[in-house]
Write a structure and sequence with these properties.
This protein is α+β, with helices and mostly antiparallel strands. Helix content is about 45%, strand content about 15%. The chain has a three-stranded antiparallel sheet with strand order 1-2-3.
């Protein structure tokens, strides 16, 4: 028998929500992607972020932003996440990232309500 590799990278309770925002017109992201997108794999009950990735131009930028958000809750740690982005990320997309956080939190709450 052929063994199937485990794809259980994420918890069985995980959902994926995608936050979207427009970046500034002169931002390179706008030229390449038109919108900035953040994909969050999270727990809909606790808001805990298991993984997150942004469609930034440089992977290191997405990795850095993720390092500021992983393990935090879109419900209870929202203000702390915004503070981290405002004080540690100095890219042109700072405002767009905060909009994405809000959008993802709203979508995760909607998902939570649907699962109850």
């Amino acid at each position: 028998t052929k063994e199937v590799p485990s794809l259980a990278r994420f918890s069985p309770d995980a959902v994926c929500v995608v936050g979207v925002s427009k970046a500034a017109n002169l931002n390179p992201i706008t030229r390449v992607h038109q919108s900035l997108i953040g994909s969050f794999v999270a727990n809909p009950q606790s808001g805990l972020i298991y993984d997150v990735q942004f469609n930034t131009i440089c992977r290191i930028t997405s990795d850095f932003i993720a390092s500021q958000l992983l393990g935090m809750s879109l419900y209870t740690d929202f203000d702390e996440m915004v503070s981290r982005i405002q004080t540690r990320y100095f890219g042109d997309s700072r405002r767009a990232i905060i909009v994405i956080l809000r959008d993802a939190a709203v979508k995760l709450r909607d998902c939570q309500a649907r699962l109850i």
